[in-house]
Specification:
Blueprint: E1 3-8, E2 11-16, E3 19-25, H1 30-37, E4 42-51, H2 60-65, E5 71-73, H3 78-86, H4 96-101, E6 107-117, H5 122-137, H6 140-153, E7 160-164, H7 175-196, E8 203-207, H8 213-221, E9 225-226, E10 240-244, H9 249-256, E11 263-266, H10 274-277, H11 283-293, E12 295-299, E13 315-319, H12 328-334
Parallel strand pairs: 7-8, 7-10, 8-9, 10-11
Antiparallel strand pairs: 1-2, 2-3, 4-6, 5-6, 11-13, 12-13
């Protein structure tokens, strides 16, 4: 069930379906709202989910203690696991690590975030993206990606695509950020169309809390299915290709804690720098390491020397085999 944040009267209300998780006065974030209006033409609100920290970041403890936010436990995907087993497809790893996590899955905090946007129309977004996509379609990188995806088809079966945090074409960022997002979106469409072949594009689900209402409509108009967090994660199965470029460590932890996909386009988190995982429980890095040890990999398109480039040292991963089990040493670290 998706999380949403809305303004109701003088309050900000965060919900999960029909259930109100908490409400807080709008006045508590009015200063941030006003600062964002200086950057763009208008502001929208969305729900944001965070993993439980081993040691909370400054400010979170006070907000949690006030009752405005709460730690929640996510719902096991046991039914999804049974469904894929019944279909005799390559389901999640049947390992001590997996069994120990069923029904546990960590805690997360649901909050809200503001995002500023320029006032644009669907035609504006379409024109801007088509310019970027036209350049992409003629590029050597696009040709390289098509060949790479065709090789991937011989290694694993992919029947759907999930894109996490691809980024916004609409938010008030620098021009280079929008171009980077546009290239990643264009690459996602190339992957979708190449894997679909003569039968037509595969289903591609995208999720990012920075999407504006207008942008969601635009993405749907070009054939993508747009969902809100955490619904994209429930769409990941053993025949999914996940696109998750330069997002946060917790995204890969959520992937690791579910059904492992057939393939991933993501950064390599097998041995993350301590800087990126220091605030999480110590077992989380081991759990993500379990995931990445189950995959072969190769460079995705090409490495950028610039860490802010569109591919940001991204790799293409594909499952080693459906009967791969993490090593006992890794399982021990995760439990």
């Amino acid at each position: 069930m998706a999380f949403t944040a809305t303004i109701q009267g003088s309050d900000i209300v965060v919900t999960e379906g029909d259930k109100i998780l908490y409400r807080t006065p709008f006045e508590h974030s009015k200063d941030l709202f006003d600062r964002l209006l200086l950057k763009g033409d208008y502001v929208e609100i969305s729900a944001v989910r965070f993993l439980r920290f081993a040691e909370g970041l400054p400010g979170l403890e006070e907000e949690d203690a006030s009752g405005e936010a709460e730690l929640r436990t996510s719902v096991p995907i046991l039914d999804e696991r049974k469904k894929w087993t019944a279909l005799d497809r390559s389901g999640p790893i049947d390992s001590p690590f997996w069994k120990s996590r069923i029904g546990v899955r960590g805690s997360y905090r649901v909050s809200y975030g503001w995002h500023a946007y320029w006032r644009k129309t669907l035609d504006d977004l379409d024109h801007e993206f088509r310019v970027i996509k036209g350049q992409w379609d003629k590029s050597k990188e696009c040709t390289t990606l098509v060949a790479q995806v065709q090789r991937l088809e011989k290694r694993v079966q992919v029947t759907n695509i999930v894109g996490l945090g691809i980024g916004s074409l609409h938010e008030c960022f620098e021009k280079g950020i929008a171009e980077r997002t546009g290239l990643q979106l264009a690459a996602a469409l190339t992957i979708r169309d190449t894997l679909g072949g003569s039968t037509g594009p595969l289903t591609c689900v995208v999720q990012d809390p920075v999407y504006s209402t207008l942008e969601k409509d635009y993405l749907r108009s070009i054939g993508l299915e747009v969902v809100d967090d955490p619904d994209a994660f429930s769409r990941i199965n053993a025949e999914t290709l996940v696109i998750n470029i330069s997002t946060y460590f917790e995204m890969d932890w959520w992937i690791a804690d579910g059904i492992w996909p057939a393939a991933m386009v993501t950064n390599d988190w097998e041995n993350p720098r301590s800087l990126f995982v220091a605030n999480y429980p110590s077992s989380y890095a081991a759990e993500v390491r379990c995931l990445f040890q189950g995959y072969e990999k190769e460079t995705f398109i090409s490495h950028d020397s610039d860490a802010n480039g569109p591919w940001d040292r991204v790799q293409l991963f594909w499952r080693k085999s459906t009967d791969y089990l993490p090593t006992q040493s890794i399982i021990g670290q995760a439990n």
